[in-house]
């Protein structure tokens, strides 16, 4: 899948991976979360080796998969309580209320998830991924299947959560990558072709096209 890919991401940074084929996104997420071990090399998360310290890494790692792992009969608040009891048993009521406020779901916290819109469900999934003050968060297509208005609200949530952690997300929306990312990595045929800030990539590769129109005077 991936061939000789390497890189470094610092704190308080949002990084985006772009690829033509969607299975690359899921594979990257699986590597970063330890679901699949790398066939060679390794991944270091906050100074810990994913091959030998996976359990310690997972206590500080948040994941938002492409498809919402939610239960229609449970309320928004019950989801945060459920996942919080597993990820961060010491999670307080104040932190739960703050998470609801951050994703603008306070007024919907007692609604069953089955009654929520697609955008609200995505915001809930994102809130779940940040439970326990995760230092590294991996988001697979965080705006998948939502309308443009919900996309913008999710962007605001991710930018708000940027402080104090590293966000790694995948998308096929170029505008989303440019708005959110401090670093963009582009993959092709399993290889990392380029990586840099949006401005660097635009200046280096974004030659664009020019259109000249000649008006004929009658």
Q: Could you walk me through the main structural features you see in this protein, from its secondary elements to its overall organization?
A:
The chain has 8 helices and 8 strands; from the N terminus they run βαββαβαααβαβαββα. By secondary structure, the chain is an alpha/beta fold. The chain has a 6-stranded mixed beta sheet with strand order 4-5-6-1-7-8, sandwiched between helices. It has one domain: Rossmann fold (3-Layer(aba) Sandwich), CATH 3.40.50.300. A hairpin with a 2-residue loop joins strand 2 and strand 3 (48-49). The chain has helices at 23-32, 54-58, 76-87, 93-102, 118-129, 148-161, 174-180, 198-205; strands at 13-19, 44-45, 48-49, 61-64, 136-140, 166-170, 183-188, 191-196. The relative contact order is 0.20. One of its GO terms (cellular component) is membrane. GO terms for molecular function: ABC-type transporter activity; ATP binding; ATP hydrolysis activity; lipid transporter activity.
């Amino acid at each position: 899948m991936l061939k000789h890919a390497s890189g470094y991401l610092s704190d308080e940074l949002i990084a985006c991976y772009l690829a033509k084929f969607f299975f690359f996104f899921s594979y990257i997420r699986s590597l970063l979360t330890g679901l699949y071990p790398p066939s060679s090399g390794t991944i270091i998360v906050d100074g810990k080796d994913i091959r030998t310290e996976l359990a310690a890494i997972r206590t500080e790692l948040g994941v938002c998969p492409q498809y919402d792992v939610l239960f229609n009969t449970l309320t928004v608040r019950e989801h945060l309580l459920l996942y919080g009891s597993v990820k961060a048993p010491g999670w307080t009521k104040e932190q739960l209320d703050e998470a609801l406020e951050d994703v603008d779901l306070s007024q919907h916290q007692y609604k069953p998830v089955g009654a929520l819109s697609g955008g609200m469900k995505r915001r809930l999934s994102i809130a779940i991924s940040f439970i326990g003050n995760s230092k590294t968060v991996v988001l697979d297509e965080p705006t998948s299947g939502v309308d443009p208005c919900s996309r913008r609200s999710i962007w605001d949530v991710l930018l708000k959560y940027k402080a104090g952690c590293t966000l790694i997300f995948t998308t096929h929306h170029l505008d989303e990558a440019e708005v959110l990312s401090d670093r963009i990595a582009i993959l092709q045929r399993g290889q990392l072709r380029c990586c840099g800030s949006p401005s660097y990539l635009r200046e280096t590769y974004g030659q664009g096209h020019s259109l000249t129109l000649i008006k004929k005077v009658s």
